[in-house]
Amino acid sequence: MEHYTEHRFVICIRNDEYPASLETRKIYEAIPDQEAEKHHQLRIIDESGEDYFYPEEYFVHIELSKAAEEALVKAA
Question: What is the dihedral of CA 69, 13, 76, 61, to 10 degrees?
Fold first, then answer.
C-alpha cells in the first residue's frame, strides 16, 4: 500500500451495493481526490486493500486524535 501524506478517516454507514467491499460501522481511510469529490464520491481503501470510488453518502467523516490516527496508519 502506498503511504499518503494526508490521512482522513471515515466510518461506513451503508454498503448496499458493496457488501463484499465495505463493512458497516468500520473505519476506513479516505484518500483526498478532488475529482471524485466533484462527483459526490470518496476514494476509499476498502476490504481488498486497494482504493476505489464509493458514494460519499455511505460514510461519515470522523476526527481522530493524533495517537489514534498514527495507530490506524501503522496497522494498515
Answer: -30
Model confidence pLDDT, tens digit, residues 39-71? 999 999 999 999 999 999 999 999 988 898 888
Q: pTM for the whole thing?
A: 0.83
**Strand arrangement, sheet containing 8-12:** 51-55, 41-45, 27-31, 8-12, 59-62
Q: Is residue 20 part of a domain?
A: yes
What domain range includes position 50? 8-75
Q: How many domains does the chain have?
A: 1
d(CA 59, CA 36): 14
Instruction: State percent of the chain over pLDDT 70.
Output: 91
Q: Which of 2, 17, 8, 4 is nearest to 54 (CA)?
A: 17
φ and ψ at 68, to 5 degrees?
-65, -40
